[in-house]
Structures are given as structure tokens and as C-alpha cells.
Design a protein that fits this description.
CATH architecture: Alpha-Beta Complex
Strand order of the largest sheet: 2-3-4-7-8
CATH topology: Peptide Deformylase
Distance between the termini: 17 Å
Number of strands: 9
Oligomer: single chain
Length: 195
């Protein structure tokens, strides 16, 4: 089932997510719905707060980056198949020299800005079967994971841009809160009923 995506300004996007228990009601169905919602909106990641649930769960699909011609064939193949579920994730380490990448967000349609992040992360998490993992990710995969991880910490990519960029985007952000935005997917706005 495709779920509406919560727009910028909704308080749920600022809440630190709560841990997910093994017996969370209909967890597998929720994960399935999140993946379907992400795919329908052409996203590369979706966190539970973005569908109104303040819990520590996000899904990632990096296949959209697999056609980057600057990557090796192995890197392209790796990203093509990179679809993961992260439950109760905790980033343990971020390493390397920060690099800029133009980020956007399904909850903030029409706004894109360069965000600096470290290229390598070590993260602890449970998968959809509640198996625990500690993995190292880099490049695009690390970038998407960090963006979605921020969501479960109540942080948005717009928090990581300069004051000037925040001022320049203020009207766009207000328009999102008011529902005056065109998105190719179903959304729910803080100051207006979802379309």
C-alpha cells in the first residue's frame, strides 16, 4: 500500500525515533508498504518518520545510482542490488574527508542543496528478520544511509546547510507546510489536509 509522505514542518519529522521491538505490530507489512511508497515516489530511501511514525526504521534502495558512469562496473553492480532495511540503527563511526553532494528529500519536494558528509560509515542495525549486523558502507550507499539515519534522529538535510541557504529556501519551505507544492506522489501537509 502506498502511504502519504509527511511534508516539511510536521512535528513528527523532529522527533527522535523510538526503538522498534521484535513484535512491533505488522512490521513486515509496514516494511513492504514503505518500500512500495519509496519506489512509487522515486526515492532512494524512506524513514518511518516520513510516513508519520516516530520509530527507528528506514529502507534504502541505491539502484538509481548504479548508472553513474564514474563508478567501476563492480560499484555499479553493487548499487544496483543495494536494497536494505535498517531497524534500530546506530552509526558507530563516520570517517574520511567530507564531500558535498546535492541532496533532496521526499518530505521537502523542490528543495535541493549541497550537503557535506563523511564518505565511510560503520553502522549497527537489525535487518527485517531482526538479525543484528555491524557493517561498513561507503560512497552513495553511506550517503543515503546517513540521510535516512538523520530522519530517525529528528534531523533534516536542511539543518546541515548554511544560514544563507536557509534564508533563500525559507519561502519554499513555507509553501511545503502550506501544501502549495507539486509532488508526483501523495503527501500530507502540516497546514493543509493531504491531497
Amino acid at each position: 500500500m502506498i502511504l502519504p509522505i509527511v511534508g516539511y514542518g510536521d512535528p513528527v519529522l523532529r522527533k527522535k525515533g523510538e526503538e522498534v521491538s521484535k513484535d512491533y505490530p505488522d512490521l513486515q507489512k509496514l516494511i513492504e508498504n514503505m518500500n512500495e511508497t519509496m519506489e512509487n515516489s522515486y526515492g532512494v530511501g524512506l524513514a518511518a518518520p516520513q510516513i508519520g511514525l516516530p520509530i527507528r526504521l528506514f529502507v534504502v534502495d541505491c539502484s538509481a545510482f548504479s548508472d553513474d558512469e564514474d563508478l567501476t562496473k563492480e560499484e555499479q553492480d553493487y548499487l544496483r542490488d543495494f536494497q536494505k532495511v535498517f531497524i534500530n540503527a546506530k552509526i558507530i563511526k563516520e570517517e574520511g574527508e567530507e564531500w558535498a553532494f546535492n541532496e533532496g528529500c521526499l518530505s521537502i519536494p523542490g528543495v535541493r542543496e549541497d550537503v557535506y558528509r563523511k564518505p565511510v560509515i560503520t553502522i549497527e542495525y537489525h535487518d527485517e528478520n531482526f538479525n543484528k549486523h555491524t557493517d561498513v558502507f561507503d560512497g552513495y550507499a553511506a550517503r543515503v544511509i546517513q540521510h535516512e539515519y538523520d530522519h530517525i534522529e529528528g534531523i533534516l538535510f536542511t539543518d546541515k546547510i548554511s544560514s544563507l541557504k536557509k534564508k533563500l529556501n525559507a519561502k519554499r519551505l513555507q509553501n511545503i507546510m502550506d501544501g502549495k507544492v507539486n509532488a508526483d506522489y501523495k503527501m500530507k501537509f502540516i497546514n493543509k489536509r493531504g491531497r
